[in-house]
Specification:
Its main location: membrane. Keywords: Fatty acid biosynthesis, Fatty acid metabolism, Iron, Lipid biosynthesis, Lipid metabolism, Membrane, Oxidoreductase, Transmembrane, Transmembrane helix. This is Fatty acid desaturase domain-containing protein. This protein is mostly helical. The protein contains twelve helices and no strands.
Length: 214
């Protein structure tokens, strides 16, 4: 993925109060490393609501499980991500001020309150619902599931077993019928030269990870 799309993605995460990308990437990497174990930052083994949202309010437990973040040295070296780490709290404040200037309090309600709550819960459903309900196509050794209705809400992120099988893949909806709006955006960015080195799983990799073989 080229730098511009990821920079835009990082800014969008900051604007919905989902934290800065260094922290977010660290947690995500630990989740893949210790998925559905006692070291998983948001394991569904501790209950649906823990994996959905309660883990975010239990930072001491996360630190006890995986220690201080030490898996994001690649991002910590980059000035842009350090800038977001130091300023991310102010990005939505600036957006709220702009919305209020354009439309007053109703714009704040819909542009900040409703939008943020909606995005939060869709994001959290990937961590919770996609480790509880759905089906598995790949031998990932964890509880990750492909969940069609989360995929519809999250623009493709619900094909979570696919993601755990091939975490490097820019495409989550690997089958033609698996709706993945995010992948369509990546393809568009690739077509106009803004996304490069886009990675997809090979047929050999799929065969190795498949639960059943022909």
């Amino acid at each position: 993925m080229g730098p511009l799309p990821f920079l835009a993605y990082s800014c969008s995460k900051a604007k919905v109060y989902e934290g800065h990308p260094i922290d977010w990437v660290s947690t995500h990497r630990y989740h893949h490393q210790f998925c559905d174990s006692d070291k998983d930052p948001h394991s569904p083994l501790e209950g649906f609501w823990f994996s959905h949202m309660n883990w975010m309010f239990d930072t001491n437990t996360i630190t006890q499980r995986v220690g201080e973040p030490n898996n994001v040295g690649d991002l910590e070296k980059q000035p842009f991500y350090q800038f977001l780490k130091n300023t991310y709290i102010w990005h939505p404040v600036a957006l709220a001020a702009a919305l209020y200037a354009m439309g007053g309090f109703p714009f704040i309600v819909w542009g900040m309150g409703v939008r943020i709550v909606w995005v939060y819960h869709i994001t959290w459903l990937v961590n919770s619902a996609c480790h509880v309900w759905g089906n598995q196509a790949w031998n990932t050794g964890d509880l990750s599931k492909n969940n069609w209705w989360v995929a519809a809400l999250a623009f493709g992120e619900g094909w979570h077993n696919n993601h755990h099988a091939f975490e490097f893949s820019a495409r989550h909806g690997l089958e033609w019928w698996q709706f993945d709006m995010t992948w369509y955006v990546v393809r568009l960015l690739q077509a106009i030269g803004l996304a490069t080195e886009v990675k997809l799983p090979s047929e050999a990799q799929k065969q190795r990870m498949a639960l059943t073989s022909d």
